[in-house]
Amino acid sequence: MESTHPDTSPTAHVNHPSRATYLKVFAWLAVFTVIELALSFVPVEQIKIPGLVLFAVTKATLVVMFYMHLRYDRRLYTVILLTGVFFALLVGRFLPLILLAKPPGG
Q1: What does the DSSP assignment read for the chain?
Q2: pLDDT of 16-75, one tens digit each?
């Protein structure tokens, strides 16, 4: 008699990336790192800083999605992660303004 319940044993590999996927992601991470290294020598700050941030975010996204398996988990986990990132960006953006603000009457 067949069981209608999904296999939840530790050996069950549902939606698990293949070795080839890991190697492709690793190759892209290596390429982005080389580009970042080259970009760090650009003397124009208006190009260098946004470029480095863009590649850092791209690499972090690849690591979270594939090596931390967020791509293969429930969507709720993605929403939780993005909510935390959103609030961290808000704090990072507005905390310096709050700390540098002069108190009234001071």
Answers
A1: ----S---STT--TTPPPHHHHHHHHHHHHHHHHHHHHHTT-S-HHHHHHHHHHHHHHHHHHIIIIIS-GGGS-HHHHHHHHHHHHHHHHHHHHHHHHHHSPPTT-
A2: 889 999 999 999 999 999 999 999 999 999 999 999 989 998 999 999 999 988 888 899
Give the per-residue pLDDT at 92.
85
Which residue has tokens 């690591």?
Answer: 63
* Residue 28 to residue 63: CA distance in whole angstroms: 11
Contact of 77 with 71, CB cutoff 8 Å: no
State pTM to two decimals. 0.68
Nearest to 80 by CA among 89, 70, 72: 70
